[in-house]
Amino acid sequence: MAEWFHRNPLKSTSYVTFELRGVATTGAAQRICGELRQARNQLIELLSNPGNQTTVVTSALDAYLGLLFGFVISADENGKDSKLRHAVQFRWSNTLLGNASLTQCDALYDQICVIFNVGLWFSKHAAAVAGKDEPKMEEALEVHKCLRIAAGMFMYIKKNLLGRLKEQPQQKATDLDSNILVAYQQQCLAEAQEVTIARAIELKHNSSIVSALAHETAKLYTEADAALTAAGDRVCLKWQKYLQFKSEIYYAYAYSYHGDSLLAQDKCGDAIKCLKESQAHYEKATQIIKEYSSAKGAGKTAKPQEHLFFRRLGPIVQRTLDKCVHENGIIYHQKIPPVTPELEQGAAYGIASPEEFQMPSSNSAWTVDTYKAFDEKKIPQKPDVRPNEWI
Questions:
Q1: With 375 labelled, which of 162, 320, 327, 383 sits at a CA distance of 20 to 30 A?
Q2: What angle do CA 16, 81, 382 make, to 5 degrees?
Q3: pTM beyond 0.90, yes or no
Q4: Which of 257, 263, 261, 259 is closest to 273 using CA atoms?
Q5: Distance (Å) of CA 111 to CA 63, 140, 148, 172, 373
Q6: How far apart are CA 144 and CA 319, in angstroms?
Q7: Contact 275, 320 (CB under 8 A)
């Protein structure tokens, strides 16, 4: 599946020094600032390589978020916003907007962007593993798990963090837009289900099982596309074309396997109608992928039209349709219904769910005394940031 997945670029960010001279009044407080700087730089560097081990990236994420904890939540056990939450300025780009950046003096903003970027990294790692010529079973399971982890991170940001931001951007299609988060989440879940569908086809599972799961996958892609439409910006167009292509492909698979299932029940007329519907979705997908290839927008252009999973579907549908038409003319003599038989609702197997993201607990260095050692009266009104330096 080397060119099967569309991926948007990672977010870029500026260096953050966490230099709080005069604010951090003890050695312990100053050490936290130094460790924060080091942990953040290490994590950002790891994310540049989708081939890194997931355990290494997860450990680096936990280390940074544990240290950042005291800048977001008070460490004096009252559970309120930290007095340091607005002490440092953070600058991040957005995945769909190039290097157009958003800057906020808010540690929660950095927390959101870091988790978002790691979620995106997990989706890129999944694509890299899936891109191997002959992925093994354990690698397919890794792809499935990584996509569910990514979906869980996007869901966590939307449900638990986004509403706590005090500064909401006015610009459309930023990564802080809940619609963008929904699109990423649903795409990851749909791609996880693709792994299951490929496995079910390989093992020749019952046609009704494949059809139902393909239908649910097509609906997830449709939901992701609808979320981008709600985001309301043309920068989403290329990504939308990819999602529309995937939706059409899985509707084509759903109707094709539904036709197989109906034929096995001697409902040849209904099977022919389903297979013609499958052909219509396949032809539509063929047109959409041309539009995708020429559309402007973020992300490296994938080439799913070159993948065997796409190329083999058209001939399979045509052969099955020819067989049904032949048998209907000789054996069944059934009328072709004017309305396409409905697909089954709700797959019984293979539905992917987000893996719940757990926010790491505070680093042990954050004690009540250490927190008190930060003098909030000396926090600058306008913290410095290096505006032209990206990591």
A1: 162
A2: 40
A3: yes
A4: 259
A5: 12, 30, 20, 21, 23
A6: 31
A7: yes
